[in-house]
Design goal:
alpha+beta, 3 strands
Length: 63
C-alpha cells in the first residue's frame, strides 16, 4: 500500500495505491483518500459487528 500522486495531473490529488500479486496475477487499485476513509470506517464497523457476533457465539456455545 502506498500514497501516490500523478505527476501530470493538473490538480494533483493523493491516492492510495493497493497492489496485490501472486505467481499468476497482479492487481492494482487506486482509491482517493476520501474513499479510503469510507472503506476504513465501513471495515471498522464490520469488524466491530463481527467481534460482537463472536462473543455471542462463544457465549452460546459455552452453555
Amino acid at each position: 500500500m502506498q500514497l501516490v500522486q500523478y505527476i501530470d495531473d493538473v490538480n494533483p490529488r493523493t491516492f492510495i495505491r493497493i497492489a496485490r500479486s501472486d505467481f499468476e496475477d497482479r492487481q492494482v487499485f487506486h482509491i482517493t483518500i476520501e474513499q479510503g476513509r469510507a472503506v476504513c470506517q465501513a471495515l471498522a464497523e464490520m469488524l466491530a459487528r463481527n467481534d460482537e457476533g463472536q462473543k455471542t457465539m462463544h457465549t452460546v456455545s459455552g452453555q
